Amino acid sequence: MSSLKMTQPTTTGLLTPKGLIDSLGLQRVLAIGAHPDDMDFGAAATLAGLTAGGVHVTLALLTAGDAGGFDTERDPEETARLRHVEQQEAAEVLGIDDVVLLGEKDGFVEPSYELIGKIVKLMRQTRPDAVVSMHPERAWDRLQKSHPDHLACGEAVVRASYPAVENPFAYSELHAAGLEAFKIKHLLLAGAPQHLVTTRVDVTETAEKKIQALRRHFSQMRDPQKMEQYVLEQMRGIYAAGLADASATTAPSGYAEEFHHVVVNDPATISGF
């Protein structure tokens, strides 16, 4: 049984976006967040590095984010419209031109049969080499990154990734419509509890794009300057954490994003084990 896949590979040091592309063989990536701005906080600089390297990225949002923001006088429908515009503009900064809304209710996301089916459909349409999404496990060190919608999003994505998307008998209506089953190779889950972080990506060259993307979400920023300082501080800390095992040629300071990398399928994978 020792030849079976390792579901929690550990990457020593810091991978560049190109290193991530080469090591995982990435051509197409599907990024899935619960709300507008989720993927921008969790993975924007990495996604910008992937698109710069020629990877096609599709961004999917489970909800329109109508329950977000600080303007209690704004109608939820107007909030949803505004946040969609903000996300489109943020995606453009990152080199993403394909943004999909899945129509779940903000604040009430559950990993239901119906939601998993929507995700399976999108996966079969886009056929990504890797899926970037939220982590399904709560991080007690900072509860804010474990919003219930984030956890539900991560759980739905994981359930869709295995076994639903690769089972032709699951959601048979999709198979009948020509959306054939296929196997997801990799998951990169943002917002993971620290003990599950396995991969850190050096995003020094694209950190400014992350900040530019986050600035587009102006309806969510009570204090934009404080937000930017916090995000940059977090990325510096992640970079520093990766330096312990980094090569001697690695710069002494920079920015990084971190993920729990899960191999779903590789050449050694045996279904059901």
Automatic annotation (TrEMBL):
Database matches in InterPro entries: GlcNAc_PI_deacetylase-related (IPR003737), LmbE-like_dom_sf (IPR024078)
Keywords: Zinc
Gene3D superfamilies found in the cross-reference section: LmbE-like
One Pfam assignment: PIG-L
PANTHER family associated with the record: LMBE FAMILY PROTEIN (PTHR12993:SF28), N-ACETYLGLUCOSAMINYL-PHOSPHATIDYLINOSITOL DE-N-ACETYLASE-RELATED (PTHR12993)
Name by which UniProt lists this protein: PIG-L deacetylase family protein
Taxonomic lineage: Bacteria, Bacillati, Actinomycetota, Actinomycetes, Micrococcales
